[in-house]
Structures are given as structure tokens and as C-alpha cells.
Amino acid sequence: MASMLYWRTSPTLYQLAESMKKFLCGIALCSPFLSWAGGERVDIARFSNSDLNGWQSKVFAGETHYALENNNGKIVLRADSHAAASGLYREIKVDLDKTPILNWTWKVDSILAGNNERSRPGDDYPARIYVVFSGGLAFWRTRAINYVWSNTQPVGSSWPNAFTGNAQMIAVESGSERVGQWVRIQRDVRADYRRLFGGEPGRVDAVAIMTDTDNTGAVATAWYGDMWFSEQ
Length: 232
Prior knowledge:
Layout: H1 11-18, E1 34-36, E2 39-45, E3 55-61, E4 65-71, E5 74-82, E6 85-94, E7 101-108, E8 125-133, E9 143-150, E10 158-160, E11 167-174, E12 183-188, H2 189-197, E13 204-212, E14 219-230
Parallel strand pairs: 9-11
Antiparallel strand pairs: 1-2, 2-14, 3-6, 4-5, 5-14, 6-13, 7-12, 7-14, 8-9, 8-13, 10-11
């Protein structure tokens, strides 16, 4: 399934988004900065507090089921996809000059074997995180980084999304070695943007979660823990 950038306030950008087929961006309420570990912190997801405030759904092809559940004594977000593609997104402004590091934990029950993730028919992942950057009035500059759990792409590798060069993919986990285990990820989003797109990213405008298997027709389950931006 492709990457789509979705904008509710600009018909021109919406037309661009429709040609891209998967995911979103927008401008909305900015969460406050919170003190954490001697620096600043912006909470994106507080699933451990049973908090889904600010999260919205977007359905593309069938509906991935998202629900909070108790997983070994901790509340997390569970995603179940059966040949479906839908996601949850939160519109939030993040200043990467202050908090460039994205932190999260996730777990999958399996990888999607056999799909070529660099092709349109193979653009499915058991777990992915989108970070979306608005181009403002320059709508053609709206871009997204997709952090994915790949089946075979090496950890650290990157490639253009099969549907649009405005979305770039990064494999932050790969293969089945850590299937069934909670994996903690930290990414310097500002540095990733500079490397993938060149120049400065500006602010983040939205973050999204997606478990999708519509192209492969597969079944996948993933769990997502809390997510936040930090100074370091």
C-alpha cells in the first residue's frame, strides 16, 4: 500500500494527495512541551495511560482494527490487519530544533514474507510509523518519512516509496529475529530528513501508525507502545 499525504484544508494539496494513495498530514492542536530527563519532551502517544485523545482513523482498503489492550501488565495499542489498510494519525506540531529524537517501542507477531517492499504490490508492513512534514503554502513540498519493520531490507537502509518520491522509507527493524519481542527504537528525525531530502525539515505536522497487509492479502498483528519526541 502506498504512502498518502492527506490535507483537509487545501483542495489543491488534496488533489496531490489523492495521486499518492497513503497517508496524511495536517495542522492542528500542538501538545505542550513537558519536562523529561533534563530536557524537553513532546508526547505523541500515551497509550500506557489508556489515552487515545487526538488520534483519528483513516481507512484506505479494508480496516485494520486498533484497540488498547493490557499486554503483560502494560496498556499498549494493538493492531490487527487482515488484508486491510487503515491507520491512526495525530495532527501535532513538533519543533525538531528543540526535540529531534523520536522514541517508541513496538512488537510484531510475524513479518510479511515474500513481498518486494520497493514495489507497489509489495508496499505492506506489519508495523510502520509515519512522520509528516508540511510544505506550508508550497504544498508540493509536503513530505513524509516512514519508519518500517521490514521483511528483508537491512536495518538502516532507505529507499523511495514505490508510489511517490515525497515519501522515503527507512528500515529500523528487519526480519524475524526479534519477532514477538518488544523493540525500542530511537531516531534522529531531523538528521534522517537532512539525509533523505536535503535541507532543513521545518516542523513536524503529524505522526501516524499503520499496520497494513492489503496488497499481500496477509494477516499481521502489531503492538505499539508510547511514543514521544525528546531533546536527546
